[in-house]
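Friendly challenge for the regulars: who can give me the structure tokens for this chain first? No prize, just bragging rights.
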Amino acid sequence: MSIKSSRALRLKRLVRWGGAIAAGTVLLSACGSSSSSTATTAPKPTITLVTNSWEGSLANNVVAQYVIEKDLHYPVKLLDLAEIPAWPATASGSVSAVLEVWGHYNHYQTYVVGNHEVINAGLEGPTGNIGWYIPTYLLKSHPELATWQGVKADWQLFVTPQTAPQGEFLDGAPSYVTNDAALVKTLGINMKVVYAGSEAAQLSQIETAYKAKKPIIFYWYTPQYFNHVYSFSQVTLPPFTQACAKLPAADINCAYPPYYLYKIMNSKLPTTAPSVAKFIQAFNWTAADQNSVSYDMAVNKLSGPAAAAKFVNSHQSLVQSWINGAPTAKKAPVLGT
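First reply, four minutes later:
Bragging rights claimed.
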């Protein structure tokens, strides 16, 4: 049964139940009550979850939507919104929660530590990793590309009509927080950063190059279901340090920091929707869990509700721990994220 149809069925049941209560109230009044009043229940608020422009964010949300609507009986809206605008939107209450946050140290300081309008809802589960990647077939033919020094020496491999006479470094969405333009400059690599525009557009370009066995170097990350479709290898950058994290954005010269993916929610959610707040704080799964739902939607072409139902039905113990379990541990983002 679809989420939409199950919600309609619940609504019919509520109408019938409400009619029975009203009839009972009238009967009691007729039997001698000196006053009559009809108790009304305020409608439950709609829970708005932010979907960012990567498949893993959508995977989180379709599963959460399925559980919140089916088990907690709150209506859920999924809102497409970029990472940075999601912070003030969560603070204002126009957004209820974001189930996967990658860093954002400065926004965390403003909204969680500073004005307390946003709550750290605990770790999501996976640890995010961002870096430079190339197809493994390219590494086999050019083993020097395992490090940034090799990329610097072999930049000519990546020249495209769009960037000639420079090499091309392929980035994702302009809204992503990236250090690649700074790294290309500070490491002295003769390359130009080109933004694909979205994760989907970047995936398309990577896939086209991969199938043709062409050289390509790109910003990439885990968890991501695409890593189970094709074989990629990470390029070693100068190690991340706190000293590097304190540099101006344009001067970053080290690898990306570790990302302990976490959840945030509006500070009033525990009052307006306590069972949902408890669910969000307890929500926790693995990168493999997320990738399985993403894969079902992106590769197996299941709808969001169908992919969510498949996962939920085969992971009932996990789902019950989200509904009845304890909050996950909290970890603040590190400087430089």
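The chain has a mean pLDDT of 89. The radius of gyration is 24 Å. Your move, everyone else.
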